[in-house]
Amino acid sequence: MSADSSADYGENGRSLVKIELSSAQMRAEPAQSSFFGSVFLVINASIGAGLLAFPFAFQQAGGVAAAIFLMLVFVIFICIALLILSYCAEHNSAPTYQDVVFRACGQHARLVCEIAVIVYTFGACITYFVVIGDQLESLLKAVVDSSMDHWYLDRRFTTFAVSIIVLVLSLFRNISYLSIPSSLGVLAMLYLVVMVVVSYANGSYPKVPATFDGGVEWSWSVAFSAIPVICFGFQCHVSAVPVYHSMKGRSVRRFAWVILLAMGFDVLLYSLAGAFGLLSFGSGTCSDVLQNYSPKDYYMVVARFALAFNIVTSYPILHYCGRVALNDLYLRMFNLPPTSPDLSIEPRADRLRRIVQTVIWFVLSLLIAIFVGSIDKVIEPFGGLAATFIFIFPGLCLLRTALKLEHITRVQRRISLVVAVIFIVLGTFIFVENTTLVIMHDSGAIKEITSCYRA
Asked: What is the pLDDT of residues 383-427, one digit of tens each?
């Protein structure tokens, strides 16, 4: 171990002891997820609300071929990042994403990571409630006379009613308990994508030319704005470490197959939804593609229900990761004793804190979601933040781990350092580029390039 690393761990020795104790509960938990249960957890953690924005992102990227090529390039980096995280998690016995960062990079990096995890997962949870509200509103318009104005048809009430199920699922202590709901959520998204393809094949909607309109020409800045959507759509890295920790017979080699199957399925669904959604509506593609379809299209009505169901099963996964990061941060801030590693009996204080944190998180995300009008308002800023989990933090972990390991060859160390630098530079570029685009978009420097066609 280098002198710098020794100083870092010496300076943070007390914090290291505390984080090991606070994570002891997760390490003591028996692995419960099967191989395919882990695959479904990873898929459900990534695929969800972001799928709705992929047809619009495909248009921004310059068309179907260019978008799929761009997506495949990023998927290669995404898979490598997941392998890096699983290797670091195994090497350091780290049960959470922020724990991996702490063991590899030290206390200050852990603090930044925890804050980023909390902000990102909270923003994603807001997005999920916005999507639930959108789909329930369209669903009710299809089955109920639109002239009726009953209180139980109000978007706020219906969102709250369905969110009770979300709250119940969010109270679980272990992420492995969500594997069965996740498998059902993945099947629900499969139905939605099939309906997008079938709708195009049947010619149910008039084809809108797939060209840019509004007097704004395509540019690289416009194409780059599709990258945050891709990052948001494939970001499962925060959840992947707890999933890896909970997998039966876990190993990096075994988890690599989980990654390949999960990412392959994600690429298939995103490619089909993005391509056929864009081919159906062209320059009229909405940022939420389901807004393009008629509320009286009953096949798509069922698809809206399927999406809402998927979101109900996806929210608890990200909430779990955010709650763990929040709990670790809370314990250190107030110098409280760590969570008990005894799983047979959960201390009353630990159970009460878990419930309170879950309820507060749930209520705040629900209230904010009620006042957000469109998912792109959430995806835009948080898509860039997703790049930090996919590129920057894994790059930093690989860099520090490669410098500390003594059993690797010089060639392996150099390759690891080069890959780490590429990840850090690419992630920083995407984050800065996305932040700049969001600021320019909000200030009016960049105008919308499409008009949303509604059936």
From this structure: 678 889 999 999 999 999 888 877 888 898 999 999 999 999 999
DSSP string for residues in 71-121: HHHHHHHHHHHHHHHHHHHHHHT--SHHHHHHHHH-HHHHHHHHHHHHHHH
- CB neighbour list of residue 69: distance below 8 Å, 6 or more residues apart: none
Comparing 17 with 33, the larger pLDDT belongs to 33
Q: How many CA atoms lie within 13 A of 206 on its CB side?
A: 7
Question: Residue 139: phi, psi to the nearest 5?
Answer: -65, -45
**Residue 295 CB contacts under 8 Å (≥ 6 apart), including other chains:** 138, 141, 142, 301
Amino acid residing at 429: F
User: Cα(319)–Cα(357) distance, rounded to whole angstroms?
Assistant: 10
Is pTM beyond 0.85 here? no
Helix, strand, coil tally for the chain in percent (to 5): 75, 0, 20
- Residue 133 to residue 156: CA distance in whole angstroms: 7
C-beta of residue 192 within 8 angstroms of C-beta of residue 30: no
Q: How far apart are CA 300 and CA 448, in angstroms?
A: 26
Q: Which residue, among 90, 280, 99, 78, has the nearest Cα to 195 in the 3D structure?
A: 280
When pLDDT is averaged across residues 307-331 and rounded to a whole number, the result is 90
Does residue 71 contact residue 230 with C-beta atoms inside 8 Å?
Answer: yes
Q: What are phi and psi of 2, to 5 degrees?
A: -70, 165
The helix/strand/coil state of 344 is coil
Query: SS3 of 248, please?
Result: coil
| Exposure on the CB side of residue 86, measured as CA atoms within 13 A | 24
